[in-house]
Write a structure and sequence with these properties.
The chain has six helices and four strands, in the order H-H-E-E-E-E-H-H-H-H. The protein has 139 residues and is mainly alpha-helical. Strand 2 and strand 3 form a beta hairpin. Helix 2 crosses helix 5. The termini are far apart.
Length: 139
Amino acid sequence: MPDEIHPLVKLLCEDRRYKLEAYQFVRAGLTYAQDDLGLGNESSAVEERHEGRPLKHVTGQDLCHALRQFAHEQFGLLARHVLASWGIQATSDFGEIVYNLIKIGEMTKSEEDRREDFDKVFDFEQALVKDFVIASKSE
């Protein structure tokens, strides 16, 4: 058995506000934002690559909106309840999760990024419940 504990495991022990699923959701949501929604600008640093492709920078506000859309696609009208069960109650929680992942080297940030970029991007009740629309696949 390895002597070293994975940084995410340490993080989950140190900061118990969010469940593992919250971190997995935000990481998957970043990939969704970059690959499915085409968000982000390619990093100018050639050495910055992830899984063989250039890193793309997504702003905090853009990531919040992408996570809202990702939550709707993944969980439908239950999105707010699912996120809440993982400790996510507001867009500021997305920021806390992202900055925790930055702290352990699982995500990166630009010089311009700030934790506050995630604050009050949208109201969860409005965006995840009241604005939810059931759309057919053909739309």
